[in-house]
Design brief:
The chain is α+β, with helices and mostly antiparallel strands and 325 residues long. The chain has two domains: 3-173, HIT family, subunit A, CATH 3.30.428.10; 195-324, HIT-like (HIT family, subunit A), CATH 3.30.428. It has helices at 123-141, 178-194, 198-202, 247-268, 301-304, 314-324; strands at 9-12, 19-22, 33-37, 40-43, 60-64, 73-77, 97-100, 103-109, 148-155, 168-173, 210-213, 217-220, 231-235, 273-278, 289-294. Helix 1 packs across helix 4. The radius of gyration is 20 Å and the shape is globular. It starts with 8 loop residues before the first strand and ends with a helix. Bound molecules: zinc ion (2 copies). One zinc ion is lined by residues 197, 199-200, 238, 287.
Length: 325
């Protein structure tokens, strides 16, 4: 195999024009989950590379609340990144489009305690996590070539996580990801024809599907939820990225986020899910929001055709949610 194929690359699938991220380094990722049965999992703490005393295994970027033996939150470089700042690239010719997957991958540990789930953290931990995200985003956006910083969390084995110690990821790219571009396009089209923000207007239509709200934030199960029991959290004020939130908004945001993940666990048990930050720092028209996608359904043939399937109407999920909370 040519050396260049061992690097992280983005290829364009000429059949659809979609971009695919190739990263063979991830085949060597450790995995500490065992006894996985549906969404019930246990893990082997001896295999966890993030415990106190194992700091030599990872490159630390930032510690909050203590030193290497007493931190409360830690940011490290992802040892198995999907993107890489260094490469040695041989361009392909003709119809085959391929380019280096340039970027940086970081991991945030919100707690040193191995067996805590994200839903079990307290408000202090959530706020520390949010402030760290804002700080890392600012630093990453200041780097050359970085156009987009994507924050997300994979919780549980069905979410794509390979290690059970709860963690979030920050990936910074050279370009805006396709889904975010699609959302930018819809927002911009709506402004052109309605002179208003799509996300603020849509609240008038999502009332039946509202899950929870407070002074400055609201969460609902979107009308066209792409996943079963999906929820969307957004600030009521027009804010295009997380760094613009006020102290009150940050506090209200983490209150709603924790309410959703706790209530989902009360409804579905110890469930795998993804938390996805959608924000665009250099597009003032964008409306910041966070999606929480429980991984109830497995990807099947119909999804390969481009239709997401959903067995739970969002109205029904919203009703169950409000009864349980
Ligand atoms: Zn651990
Ligand atoms: Zn808005």
């Amino acid at each position: 195999m040519p050396e260049s194929y061992k690097k992280d690359v983005i290829r364009v699938d000429y059949r659809t024009g979609k971009k695919i991220l190739f990263s063979s380094v991830r085949n060597n990722k450790p995995d500490d989950f065992y006894h996985i049965s549906g969404d019930n999992w246990e893990s082997d703490i001896s295999k966890c590379p993030f415990e106190y005393g194992k700091e030599a295994l990872n490159k630390t970027i930032k510690l909050v609340g203590g030193d290497e033996h007493s931190w409360k939150l830690k940011v490290i470089e992802n040892k198995f990144p999907m993107l890489s700042p260094e490469f040695d690239f041989i361009p392909l010719e003709g119809l085959l489009e391929e380019k280096p997957a340039f970027g940086y991958c970081e991991v945030i540990f919100e707690t040193p305690i191995h067996n805590l789930r994200f839903s079990q953290l307290g408000k202090e931990e959530y706020l520390r996590w949010l402030d760290t995200i804002i700080e890392r985003e600012n630093e990453l956006y200041s780097r050359d070539r970085i156009k987009y910083v994507y924050v997300f969390k994979n919780e549980g084995p069905r979410s794509g996580a390979s290690l059970s110690h709860t963690h979030s990821q920050i990936i910074s790219f050279e370009e805006v990801p396709e889904t975010i571009k699609d959302e930018q396009k819809k927002i911009s089209e709506f402004i052109d024809s309605n002179h208003a923000c799509l996300y603020e207007q849509i609240l008038n239509y999502e009332k039946e599907r509202v899950l929870v709200e407070n002074n400055t934030f609201i969460a609902f199960a979107p009308f066209g939820s792409k996943m079963s029991s999906e929820s969307l959290i957004m600030p009521k004020r027009h804010v295009n990225y997380v760094g613009l939130l006020s102290s009150e908004e940050k506090s209200d945001f983490v209150d709603i986020l924790s309410k959703i993940i706790k209530t989902n666990e009360a409804l579905f048990g110890k469930i795998s899910y993804n938390i996805l930050f959608h924000e665009v720092k250099d597009d003032e028209n964008f409306h910041f929001h966070v999606e929480i996608c429980p991984r109830v359904i497995t990807f099947a043939a119909i999804e390969f055709a481009g239709f997401n399937t959903n067995q739970v109407f969002p109205e029904f999920y919203a009703k169950l949610f409000r009864e349980k909370s």
